[in-house]
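Protein entry
_____________
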Amino acid sequence: MFWNIVRLEMSKTYQRLLPWICLGVVALIVLAISTALFLYNMLVPGYHNTSSLTWPGSFVFGLNFALAIRPGTPMVPML
């Protein structure tokens, strides 16, 4: 019974035009932002030579923030 309802709702949702239009708009926004960031990295002199890998620090900060740990304290205590 549950899967019949899920299948019915999915068929109703994806046969409408609005979700596909919204998906296209979101894809265009993501493409525009990615292109703008790429062009900014290539056009700013000297910027493309530097390392822009910042996600490990941001990932640890996000985990610390989500776990409500004070900034600067290690997430995993040293053994």
